[in-house]
Fold this sequence. Notes:
The chain is α+β, with helices and mostly antiparallel strands and about 250 residues long. It has a single domain (about 1-205), classed as Transferase(Phosphotransferase), domain 1. It contains eight helices and ten strands. Strand 5 (about 95-100) and strand 6 form a beta hairpin. This is Ferric iron reductase protein FhuF.
Amino acid sequence: MIRLTKEQADALRQFRLVSNAENSSFSIETKELLDPGTVGEYLLKLKQHIGAADEKVAASILVKRYAFLPVTYLYCMTAWNLKLDISHENLSLESQEKNGLWLPGFRFKNLWGKAAGADRNQWREDAIRSLFSIHVFPILDSVAKEAKISKLILWENIVIYLFWLYETVLPEEPLLARQASEDFKFIIEEASGDLFGRYNENPLKRYHNKKIFVESTGKMIRPRKTCCFSYLTNSGKRCGTCPQVCKNL
């Protein structure tokens, strides 16, 4: 295992990496999200905190915030050829607020990773399995069952941030552009379903639809296929890629 340097840790703070534990009832050990009773109680508290209409909305927002863990992990994988230790026991979600929004951070008990070997393709496949099948899927399964929400929504809540990472963040670093393109193609198009959990097909592929041009903003966006329900919270705002908004463009 290789311990990340201070410079690397600082670079990951843009993805909500934190160093300190927060004394808050909304901070939680990741492993606790796998317990039906605990995750049920947590969603009830979170619903009240963010003004969510119901537990389904709270679950969607929770996973949307949780998406920054895969972003952090994949940035390390692509930029530094490091496979972070994201065992459930090594992580906690630390509650934070910014401009009235609940934007929790992630704290690693041990911030270290395993370097890529001679066969990077095999290492990458193992890294993707560790992230999605071993870490993310059990949490999505737990949250989905408790809140009775479709995993189609939860997976899209994650993949939209992977699009951001690989189409916006990493391409800004010229030396990483080629590797980022190859890793992105593998994750979204080539990776087999079993790397993501109990799937025959890659659950992320369905969301990689074409972007459309929005004249009012002058930007290209990729409309979501599902709604994340963020408008059913205190903010009352819809996302810029909301399917309800985009269908009228």
